[in-house]
């Protein structure tokens, strides 16, 4: 039986645990590095990213989290968890914060504003519907939410959200060639997938829609199938297939 770890330092870990129970999956709260050894996948929940980073540093979790990401096991970050997984984050508090990294994107920590500017909206998610059934839209709950400003070529965009061009222009790096071809950039990315990593700027665990959790579990199934197919083709210079990840960048 698949066991899903939920990082339980702070934030909405209880809500993720409840969503996992709803679909009949065992969830385990993770607070110490050694607990990662007994789970098949990991959810990093939403919360206050700076506080979560300080607690993770206190418990010496960052090396174990990076190793888990690099192992190929599925990891899903929601809201603050998305910030944790990003290779680069901007808009951080003075002094920055440590990141886990692995997700080839640039995240703006507090793109949508303060707690008072939190909101709910319908998001177009045809790729989610294609894989998990149901409608082509889902409810997105954004609470002091981040947004993804840029992604690498290996990142699949699952959902985006319209914003005013002046707001995006003041925060996103300018690409004049792209603007000349497409007009003003007026959307930010709010859900992505890259290999074993899933990231959402919003909180699916706060809705009744469990399709994001089901999608995440299927990522583990696909990873297991690929591991069986590729087990005999390991690189002799890197027998565990882990490679050497680039360190995350934070500003």
From TrEMBL:
Pfam families (UniProt xref): SNO
Protein's UniProt keywords contain Lyase: yes
Keyword terms of this UniProt record: Glutamine amidotransferase, Hydrolase, Lyase
Catalysed reaction equations from the record: L-glutamine + H2O = L-glutamate + NH4(+)
Region entry Disordered, spans: 228-251
Gene Ontology molecular functions: glutaminase activity; lyase activity
Binding, L-glutamine: 47-49, 109, 143-144
GO BP terms in the entry: pyridoxal phosphate biosynthetic process; pyridoxine metabolic process
EC numbers, comma separated: 3.5.1.2
InterPro entries: Class_I_gatase-like (IPR029062), PdxT/SNO (IPR002161), PdxT/SNO_CS (IPR021196)
One of the record's GO cellular component terms: cytosol
Active site: 79 (nucleophile), 203 (charge relay system), 205 (charge relay system)
Entries under Gene3D superfamilies matching the protein: 3.40.50.880
Family: Belongs to the glutaminase PdxT/SNO family.
Family matches, as NCBIfam families: PLP_synth_Pdx2
The protein, known as: glutaminase
Lineage, broadest ranks: Eukaryota, Viridiplantae, Streptophyta, Embryophyta, Tracheophyta
Gene for this chain: LOC120265469
């Amino acid at each position: 039986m698949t066991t899903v770890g939920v990082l339980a330092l702070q934030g909405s870990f209880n809500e993720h645990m409840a969503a996992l129970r709803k679909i009949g999956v065992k969830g385990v709260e993770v607070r110490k590095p050694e607990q990662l050894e007994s789970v098949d996948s990991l959810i990093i929940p939403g919360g206050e990213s700076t506080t979560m980073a300080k607690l993770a540093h206190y418990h010496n979790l960052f090396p174990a989290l990076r190793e888990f990401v690099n192992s190929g096991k599925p990891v899903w970050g929601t809201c603050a968890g998305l910030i944790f997984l990003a290779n680069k984050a901007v808009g951080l508090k003075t002094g920055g914060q440590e990141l886990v990294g692995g997700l080839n994107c640039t995240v703006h920590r507090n793109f949508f504003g303060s707690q008072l500017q939190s909101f709910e909206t319908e998001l177009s998610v045809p790729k989610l519907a294609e894989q998990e059934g149901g409608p082509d839209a889902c409810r997105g709950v954004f609470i002091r939410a981040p947004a993804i400003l840029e992604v690498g070529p290996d990142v699949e965009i699952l959902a985006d959200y319209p914003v005013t061009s002046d707001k995006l222009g003041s925060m996103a790096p300018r690409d004049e060639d792209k603007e000349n071809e497409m007009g003003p950039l007026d959307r930010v990315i709010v859900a992505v997938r890259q290999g074993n990593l899933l990231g959402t700027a919003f909180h699916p665990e706060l809705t009744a829609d469990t399709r994001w959790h089901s999608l995440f579990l299927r990522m583990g199934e696909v990873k297991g199938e690929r591991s069986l197919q590729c087990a005999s083709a390991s690189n002799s210079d890197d027998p565990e297939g882990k490679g050497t990840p680039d360190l995350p960048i934070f500003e």
